Amino acid sequence: MKKSLLFFALILSFLAFAQTVSADSAVVTEKTAHFPDGGAKNFRQLLADNFRSKKVKGSGKVSCQLKFVVETDGSITNVTVTGDNESFNKEAVRAISLIKTKWEPAKMNGVPVRYWFKVPLSMIF
């Protein structure tokens, strides 16, 4: 049940923003990074499958914002999370770190570039 709530929350709130890794300059890419074999839906499902809700301490609605970089080779790096519940934050980082499938990188002028993603997560306990 908890996984289905997380999955539902991910479906409704999956957002992506493109920018360079330096925070002072943002660019729009001609092709955004995307997850292969099912795209965002498959990524959200893998994230929900990897998430261990029993490890989260808290009650009510818990949320965080997961931020990571899709590198030019498609790997995920620089995973950071902001949120009030530390156990939820740690579990979100652990869940995304278990996803080993490489992304299709963003492209600018036909050249792969780094791409920031932001994913809001929420769960009701």
From TrEMBL:
Keywords: Signal. The keyword RNA-binding does not apply. It holds the Pfam family TonB_C. Gene3D superfamilies: 3.30.1150.10. Residues 1-18 form the signal peptide. Residues 63-121 form the TonB C-terminal domain. The keyword Zinc does not apply. This is Energy transducer TonB. It comes from Kaistella pullorum.
